[in-house]
Amino acid sequence: MFVAVVSDVGLLVGVRQSIRWISAEVRPLKICIVALAQIIAIFLITWLPIEVSAQVNIKYGWKILSQFFLCIGAFNIFTGVAASAFTLTLVALLLHRLFWPIAGRLFYQVARYKVVRNHKAMASLGAICMVFALPSLRGVVAGVLGWLITVFSGDLQTRPKAG
Prior knowledge:
Helix content: over 70%
Oligomer: single chain
Radius of gyration: 29 Å
Order of helices and strands: HHHHHHH
Number of domains: 2
Distance between the termini: 91 Å
Structural class: mainly alpha
């Protein structure tokens, strides 16, 4: 129990220090290094003791040492889950740093040209989303969209009436 608690405290202190290290200057390479180090640390304190326990039990038949490593791995599972929350946050931060320059250009243009206030564009976007969300309704959505286009474009008034 003492070894598991010491490894828990050591991991959480290491995670905290690594996050402090990258908080001074947020760079994608630093974020990758810290996230990878945290994944390796989580792997070492959770999976490795359980694997060593199985190998010691199979190879040498030592029940006490096998039980010791198994308990360390079992007690560290919750610490691994807590450390994984920080790792997932770092991965989300990395994805944000990598893709924001591309996404930011798109969002700034949407705000600049006030696309949200353009009813025709939003209706078209909504219809496209409906087609992808409900593929079985493609025919219905296409028919309604075609009717809306003819209504909004004014083609109904310029056509001669039949009969």
